[in-house]
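Fold it.
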Amino acid sequence: MSLVEEKYYERIDAMTPKERVARSCEIFQWARQAIARQIVAEQGPVSDERLKWLVALRLYGAEPGVRKMIERMLDGVPN
């Protein structure tokens, strides 16, 4: 294990459960924002509602049942 990894795990281990959950939420929010920026760069501006579902499709679209549900939601959302 490198020194950087060692320090990283020391800091993670020192976090309280509440801090770990908050960190996970922040990372998830960051990932959703990054995906949203990517979608807008590829497709141009879309409504906030549509963007929300397009991000969900990228995150969860590998699951067939979830993909169908998200696609149904997208059908009802204007650009």
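The mean pLDDT is 96.
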